[in-house]
Specification:
heterodimer; A: alpha/beta; TIM Barrel; eight-stranded parallel beta barrel; B: about 230 residues; alpha/beta; Rossmann fold; four-stranded parallel β-sheet; about 30% helix
């Protein structure tokens, strides 16, 4: 075991993992994240906390993870390289480990121009691949990026993201391979709607045996309305939504029920694709529906290891 | 190398010149002329605008290359008109403004903003070419700089926001990594996509005051030429 987190144990045992995203509040009330933790903890193996997602200021990922940790809920701490340089990133890793946070997910983060502080200076001192490398080096060699020794253990289960739907498609597997080489233990993908493209990506991965070197969790976003799906298609970069899903949502009498149905179909399909080791549900404000989705997908009870 | 500039709003210039009644104007015949921010016609246009704002322009000149040390001689040649002014308004890039400020014994104000070091891709359309980071990666990236071309300056491939060759920040920005991919593919170098580019040494860039170097054998070469 690298960190011995619940998520690592589940994936290592070959069981199908479930993680769920919980976005921190745009304010100081700890109950927002605590409520999400309470609602979701029985329905997933770890709760994934975003780091100022879409470049909009929210409670910090580290602080939100601590609130979950205090309740006994296992967090996955997201870390974007957009806002912190290598000094701050490594410092936060030490702090997170001191508090028992073992799952850290590395990403570059949405550009500030897409968020609510477009005038801010983007940092990007290092990129996501380099952050994965930094974490692996901290864990395995007990060394900072500059080569200095770290005192104490740095048990980490390192995550990364992948978007099989972005362009150029031909880069998407090599980029994943790079992240694995850098040290990614698990991968969360962008939301899957276009199952055939996802399957095509997974096929290349399994042919290369990359699915045996990391754990791939397929991203799932339950859609709530036709408006939401149209918005995502037009405004969320790198999300590919086939027209038939849009048509279904537009024609549905009960859009929410149809959205849940689509999510369940997608889960059933990705579950059958060789090399997929779990799902990562991003409910974006619709967390209350997650327990029903996980239950109806036949993913309960969550294993206790 | 071209220094790409944009004129400051007239209001801002007038604000800066609030205390000056008499103004001397300096343009540049190189980059600022090309960017239409400090060539002869822009200088004459500024002269008119300042006159309309109640200022007196004591004189003007367009120095062939304002960043050159010859600017000192140009200032001497026009000393009388410059002496009659309360300040100098410099319509050149920051290099020119600094050169004028160094040699002129007058208050100096900038009339343009220096945006970047770039090239003219099509007439009138300029794009940044070099960040001057001090650690060139062009050999690894097929001659396309990801530090200026990629909005996130990513060194290890495209982020998840690259769609149809465009950047997530704006459909007007080409994805640098799509361009790099295409050129690597065209030159049979796709295998390099899986090589990890390590964390960059930024100490050669924006850290620790002005960057400077001394080329050691300059003096000897000058002597031998003599």
């Amino acid at each position: 075991m690298k960190a011995g987190t619940n998520l690592e144990k589940i994936l290592a045992s070959g069981k199908f993992a479930v993680t769920v995203e919980a976005g921190p509040p745009k304010g100081t009330n700890p109950e927002v994240i605590q409520k999400k933790g309470n609602l979701l903890c029985q329905y997933c193996d770890a709760v994934n906390v975003t780091d100022n997602q879409t470049a909009i200021v929210r409670m910090s990922s580290l602080a939100s993870c601590l609130l979950l940790k205090q309740m006994g809920v296992e967090p996955v701490m997201q870390m974007a390289t957009r806002d912190r340089n290598r000094i701050a990133l490594q410092s936060d890793v030490l702090g997170a480990v001191a508090w028992g946070i073992g799952n850290i997910l590395c990403l570059s983060g949405d550009h500030p121009k897409l968020g609510n502080h477009p005038q801010s200076k983007a940092v990007f001192d290092i990129d996501s691949v380099q952050l994965i490398q930094v974490l692996k080096n901290m864990r395995d060699e007990h060394k900072f990026i500059n080569g200095d020794e770290i005192s104490g253990e740095v048990p980490l289960f390192i995550g990364a993201v992948a978007n099989p739907f972005a362009d150029p498609f031909e880069v998407r597997v090599p980029r994943l391979a790079k992240k694995i080489k850098a040290g990614a233990d698990f991968i969360q993908t962008q939301a899957v709607f276009d199952v055939s493209r996802f399957a095509q990506w997974m096929k290349i991965i399994t042919e290369r045996g990359l699915d045996e070197e990391t754990h791939i969790l397929a991203g799932i976003i339950p859609i709530r309305s036709a408006g939401m799906v149209r918005y995502m298609k037009n405004n969320v970069s790198g999300v590919n939504i086939p027209d038939d899903i849009i048509t279904r949502m537009e024609k549905a009498e009960d859009a929410e029920a149809e959205g849940v149905k689509i999510a369940l179909e997608l889960i059933a399909k990705v579950k059958e694709i060789p090399g997929v080791h779990g799902i990562h549900v991003m409910a974006v404000g619709w967390e209350k529906k997650v327990p029903e989705i996980i239950e109806r997908a036949g993913l309960l009870p969550r294993p206790v290891l | 190398m071209k220094s790409i500039t944009r004129s400051k709003p007239l209001e801002e210039i007038k604000q800066r010149l609030a205390k000056c009644r008499q103004v001397y104007l300096i343009g540049c015949g190189t980059c600022a002329t090309m960017c239409r921010t400090g060539g002869k016609s822009e200088v004459l246009d500024m002269k008119q605008k300042l006159a309309a704002a109640g200022k007196k322009v004591t004189g003007w000149m367009v120095i062939p290359t304002a960043c050159d040390v010859l600017t000192r001689d140009a200032l001497k040649e026009n000393a009388k008109e410059i002496a009659a002014a309360d300040c100098i308004l410099v319509m050149t890039c920051a290099f020119g403004v600094q050169t004028v400020a160094r040699y002129a014994e007058k208050s100096v104000y900038a009339a343009v903003d220096t945006l970047f070091i770039g090239t003219e891709e099509t007439p009138g359309e300029f794009i940044e070419a070099c960040l001057q980071c001090g650690g060139c990666v062009l050999g690894q990236t097929a001659g396309i700089c990801p530090l200026v071309r990629c909005a996130k300056g990513l060194l290890n491939g495209p982020c998840g926001g690259s769609v149809d060759g465009k950047c997530e920040v704006s459909p007007d920005i080409a994805c640098a990594w799509q361009m790099i991919y295409d050129r690597l593919a065209a030159t049979g170098r796709l295998d390099e996509l899986e090589e990890i580019e390590p964390a960059k040494d930024w100490s050669t860039s924006l850290s620790g005051g002005p960057r400077q170097i001394t080329i050691e054998d300059t003096e000897e070469k000058t002597e031998s030429q003599d």
